[in-house]
Design a protein that fits this description.
Blueprint: H1 8-35, H2 41-50, H3 63-75, H4 78-102, H5 105-114, H6 130-151, H7 154-168, H8 174-187, H9 198-219, H10 223-232, H11 236-253, H12 255-267, H13 269-274, H14 289-310, H15 326-333, H16 336-372, H17 382-396, E1 403-406, H18 408-417, E2 423-425, H19 438-444, E3 446-451, H20 459-465, E4 471-479, E5 490-498
Parallel strand pairs: 1-2, 1-3
Antiparallel strand pairs: 3-5, 4-5
Helix pairs in contact: 1-4, 1-16, 2-3, 2-18, 3-4, 4-5, 4-6, 5-15, 6-7, 6-8, 7-9, 8-14, 11-14, 12-16, 14-15, 17-18
């Protein structure tokens, strides 16, 4: 992954880092599915979308669900966790490549590794979602523009357009990075490149990649925008407090990195005193510090300014992909006379952090429900729920289970678990599930799941029950929780809608 340094000692250290990284990726890919009874919430939701291969979904663009679907088909329950780790590896590689263009290779490697000191790259990465999927594309966009500015080659501008287009197909918040980079080009001497063809080629490539999704948005009356407006809109003061809370959350997620740097700084007092800095001015060891500051902090600053000015409700998790270059900022800041003393302590501190968070995460997955006396999303009995649903359907129908509807979380687990991978009728709303048509329901039927006695049944299913020949049956099952100390079993209601051609005769 990284070019080997010249000295034997450095090569040995690099091999140790690569081995430790491989073990870390394997542990975070293989142990979570063994310690979890169900897939995380965002994974279940994205799998219910990805199997339909649409150009968009009611919340987000399509790329992340597509990739997740491929990995889930290939690797089963390990797939989502492996995918997250591979995306992080790709992110770190791109950060290193970016760093090599800004500073020495040694500093770039250290900066790439220190990125793991940001908490977003550890525990939150267990749940592959659109935020995790943005990370390598965020890093790739920053790298490609830097390469284009340094070398001026057309291939870098084309790659910039590809990275930006794929980023927009992952989540619209990539636009924050693109806006930051556009402002950088306009407000710095780099704006001279706007007189050439490169930036406009990149823009054209990005537009071409985004065009199919844009057409889908137009066809669906901009459906995700209504969702985003509902999530982000807030009134005045409340939205402004959200912007300040956003900054606090991002700072908290940088706390491990800050503690690693602080511990290394304190631990090298003697070496730093023996090698005082020459001159009074602190030097940044970076060829283009303005660019590094822009890509590292610009998107966050833009979010906060818009939130404060417009009262926009800002979500904390929007910050997940923003910090891919935080480690490079630290590496560029370290004084050259002290780098040799600081680097070993920084790497040891990072290793301690990763071991601690790995052990804590494993214990939480294994025993968290028992400690809290209530389940998290990954403690739900996914296999048992799916088996009960399938048994209820097969008792009434001779045909395969084509779709499930009802409680979004429960049906997502069923759709991900069963080999048939039934489609999900989201909220019984055809706008959210265009793959579920009245004709499909009439021909294949469906199964509804409700949690609780007052779970609503979608109006479309009531109409389905009136179809001539449709047989409707209902029941209730109690499913034990897969952890010790659970008070009561999970009560689940079901209702089958079986067309006449599929009714199983006694």
């Amino acid at each position: 992954m990284f070019a080997a340094p010249s000295s034997p000692q450095s090569r040995t250290s690099l091999r140790a880092i690569v081995l430790a990284a491989a073990l870390y990726v394997l542990a975070w890919s293989l142990l979570p599915p063994l310690l979890s009874a169900s897939v995380p919430l965002d994974v279940a939701e994205s799998l219910s979308w990805g199997r339909e291969w649409q150009w968009g979904y009611y919340k987000h663009p399509p790329l992340a669900p597509w990739v997740l679907e491929v990995f889930y088909r290939a690797f089963g329950h390990v797939g989502p966790f492996l995918l997250s780790q591979l995306f992080i590896v790709a992110t770190l590689w791109l950060v290193w490549r970016t760093g090599c263009r800004l500073m020495s290779r040694e500093r770039a490697l250290l900066g790439a590794l220190l990125t793991m000191g940001v908490a977003y790259y550890t525990r939150p990465a267990l749940e592959f979602n659109h935020n995790i999927a943005q990370m390598p594309l965020w890093a790739a966009t920053g790298y490609c523009l830097l390469a284009a500015l340094q070398e001026g080659k057309m291939r870098h501008w084309v790659l910039l357009g590809v990275a930006a287009g794929l980023g927009l197909l992952t989540k619209y918040s990539v636009g924050l990075l693109l806006a930051t980079l556009a402002l950088y080009l306009l407000l710095t001497p780099e704006r001279r490149v706007l007189r050439g063809a490169g930036p406009w080629v990149a823009l054209a490539v990005m537009a071409a990649l985004f065009a199919p999704h844009l057409h889908w948005l137009w066809q669906t009356n901009w459906l995700p925008m209504a969702y985003a407006q509902d999530r982000a809109s807030g009134a005045g003061t409340h939205g402004r407090w959200d912007a300040l809370a956003f900054v606090a959350t991002q700072a908290i997620n940088h706390l491990p990195l800050a503690l690693i740097v602080l511990a290394a700084w304190v631990g090298t007092r003697r070496q730093r005193r023996a090698a005082p800095l020459s001159g009074r001015r602190w030097q940044w060891h970076c060829d283009r510090p303005a660019y590094l500051w822009a890509v590292a902090l610009g998107p966050c600053l833009l979010v906060v300014l818009v939130g404060l000015a417009a009262g926009l409700r800002v979500r904390d998790m929007w910050g997940v992909p923003m910090w891919v270059f935080s480690g490079l900022l630290v590496a560029a800041w370290l004084p050259a006379p002290w780098l040799a003393a600081l680097q070993p302590r920084l790497l040891r501190g990072l290793a301690v952090w990763l071991v601690l968070i790995s052990v804590a995460t494993g214990l939480w997955l294994a025993f968290g429900a028992q400690w809290r006396h209530r389940p998290s999303r990954t403690d739900w009995p996914q296999a048992a729920i799916a088996q009960q649903v399938l048994s209820a359907w097969q008792a009434q129908s001779r045909c395969p289970l084509d779709s499930v509807s009802g409680d979004y979380w429960a049906v997502g687990l069923v759709a991900a678990q069963l080999p048939e991978r039934p489609s999900v009728y989201i909220a019984g709303d055809p706008r959210f599930s265009p793959w579920i048509t009245p004709g499909r329901l009439r021909d294949h039927g469906t199964l509804w799941i409700g949690l609780g006695d007052d779970a609503p049944v979608p109006a479309g299913l009531d109409a389905l029950a009136q179809q001539p020949g449709t047989q409707v049956r209902q029941g209730q099952v109690a499913i034990d929780w897969p952890y010790r100390g659970a008070a009561e079993p999970l009560a689940m209601h079901w209702r089958t809608y079986v067309p006449a051609a599929c009714v199983r005769q006694p």
